[in-house]
Every structure is written in structure tokens, then in C-alpha cells.
Design brief:
The protein has 221 residues and is an alpha/beta fold. Helix content is 45%, strand content 14%. The protein is built from 7 helices and 7 strands, in the order αβαβαβαβαβαβαβ. A 7-stranded parallel beta sheet has the order 3-2-1-4-5-6-7, with helices on both faces. Helix 4 crosses helix 5. The longest helix has 26 residues. It is globular. 30% of the residues are buried.
């Protein structure tokens, strides 16, 4: 009898998990409906913005310059622990908009540094995942904006897990870098293939033809 009960419970748990996964995959990509009282303006959405070194941050800053800032607040900026320049640019953007009080700036451990051995990167990846989990529990964003840095992958995966277990529904918006003309970046490919991104945007028409679930938006630079 004990084995029968255990097997029944395992089947029931597996059924619940599969059902929840199917629901999440079905709802992913659907328009977000912000909660608001009838006749009142939509409530602002807490937003996590993932920055990356070099061109990633430059492109993200361009995107943020046309963002409806009152709709996406508070804003949480995250960059790799060794990337101080990106956070400086984000702070300058917020200060110029005179809205630095509605933003926070954080750093996260890298899963793997350039040139680091794959053996030692196992430990650093686990540390980065634990740190990312702590940050996501703390922030619990409603929207995640990212455009390719490897830092975004663990954060988006954690956000997907949060959806499945019902902690928080975070809508992930991914914009592939303009430098990606023929193929997606590794970060973009992972988020696309795993269906983690709710909305996936590319800046070249040939990419949209190759990845039909992506939305072609033209050059955003």
C-alpha cells in the first residue's frame, strides 16, 4: 500500500508540474495586462534592466532613452561585478532624467570570466546562480529588459522558474543586438529555444525569417 500511495503522489505531482508548464508556455508571449482600478491609470511596473559591457550597454541606453519611464518604475539596473562602466552610464541616464530616486543599481557575479577554465567555472556558475536567485527574490520584477549579455541568462531562467512555481510573473523582453545579422547570440538562442522570452525582437529581417517567433523592429540605434 505504501508504494502505491507514493507512486500515486508522484504521478499527481508530475501531472501538476506538466500542467503548470503547459500553462506557462501558453501564456508566455501574451500581452501583459497591468492591474488597475476601472477608470484609473495603469500601475507602474517594477522593471529589471540587465546591462552588458561595451555595445550591449550602449544599445540598452538608447532603448531606455525612449522608454515611458512613468510606466516602468522602479527600475533596477544589474551589471556584472566587474563591469562598473555600465552602471556609471545608467546612473548618468537616470540623473539626467532627474529620476535617480526611482532606480537602484546592483552587480551580480559572472558565471565565467574571459579565459577562465571550464573546470573552475562550474563553481563560479553555482555561485552566480545563487547570487542571481537572491537578487531575484529581493527584486521580484514584473518586467525584465535585456539585450544579450550572458548575465541575463541565469536571471531569466530564474524568472521562468518563478512563473512555474507561482512566485512572480515576470515578462521578459529580449532585444537582440544589432551586431547579430545572420544568427542569434548564445544568450538569445537559449532564451528563444527554451521559450523563456515573452517577446523576442531582432533588428534584421533575415533573422526574423530564420526565427519566426521573433519580431522584426528594424534598426533601433
Amino acid at each position: 500500500m505504501g508504494w502505491a500511495v507514493a507512486i500515486t503522489l508522484l504521478i499527481a505531482a508530475a501531472t501538476l508540474i506538466v500542467t503548470r508548464l503547459l500553462y506557462v508556455f501558453h501564456r508566455t508571449g501574451k500581452p501583459h495586462k497591468p492591474s488597475s482600478s476601472k477608470g484609473s491609470a495603469p500601475q507602474p511596473l517594477s522593471t529589471l534592466i540587465v546591462l552588458g559591457s561595451g555595445g550591449h550597454t550602449a544599445e540598452m541606453i538608447n532603448l531606455l532613452s525612449v522608454l515611458q519611464r512613468d510606466r516602468f518604475a522602479p527600475r533596477f539596473y544589474i551589471a556584472a561585478a566587474t563591469d562598473n562602466m555600465s552602471l556609471q552610464k545608467a546612473r548618468l541616464l537616470e540623473e539626467n532624467a532627474d529620476e535617480s530616486s526611482s532606480s537602484q543599481f546592483m552587480q551580480i557575479y559572472r558565471s565565467r570570466e574571459v579565459g577562465q577554465s571550464y573546470f573552475t567555472s562550474v563553481l563560479t556558475t553555482l555561485i552566480a546562480l545563487a547570487h542571481g536567485l537572491w537578487l531575484m527574490i529581493r527584486i521580484r520584477p514584473q518586467v525584465i529588459l535585456c539585450n544579450g549579455p550572458g548575465t541575463c541568462v541565469p536571471l531569466c531562467v530564474i524568472a521562468f522558474i518563478f512563473k512555474v512555481v507561482g512566485i512572480r510573473w515576470s515578462s521578459v523582453f529580449y532585444v537582440e543586438s544589432i551586431a547579430r545579422v545572420q544568427r542569434l547570440s548564445l544568450s538569445g538562442l537559449l532564451l528563444y529555444k527554451l521559450r523563456i522570452a515573452d517577446q523576442f525582437f531582432v533588428q534584421w529581417p533575415q533573422l526574423q525569417k530564420k526565427y519566426p517567433r521573433a519580431h522584426y523592429v528594424g534598426c533601433l540605434m
